[in-house]
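Quality-control log, excerpt.
Job 1 of 2 completed; input and output follow.
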Amino acid sequence: MGLNDLKNPENIAFRTLLNICKKYFGKPRIRGSHYIFKTPWKGDPRINIQKDGKMAKPYQVKLIKKAIERLEEPNEQNNR
């Protein structure tokens, strides 16, 4: 599970996105319908996802993809 699973943001099940987020960012804090994950940097991209029926919201999939790409950069880049 990883970036390859996020190729088509329009067709990602929420459960899949949640599992990917758990893999990269750990256990979420849940506030109502929001699943909030901590990141090693301040500011955006923030990790906050919620369901759209059984599917993930496409804009949130794109933000998660961006966050994972940033996470995989050299450590000095994560501290901006």
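Job 2 of 2 completed; input and output follow.
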Amino acid sequence: MEIVEDPRGDTYRAVYTVRLAKAIYVLQAFQKKSTRGIATSRRDVDLIRRRLRGAQEDYEVCCAKND
């Protein structure tokens, strides 16, 4: 899921997941600076993927075992 805020033409995005039942992890927040279209940079997408894997591992250690 993605939240997009666009005040005064400056676009900000926060990408997070809610797939984990007992936790919400903010994976990345950034100001959108692309001059070509609406695409999110490959660097940001790769970082979000790595952080999602880390959040899933953290969730298994912290939250899932406490069910």
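Post-run check on job 2. The first strand starts at residue 2 and ends at 5.
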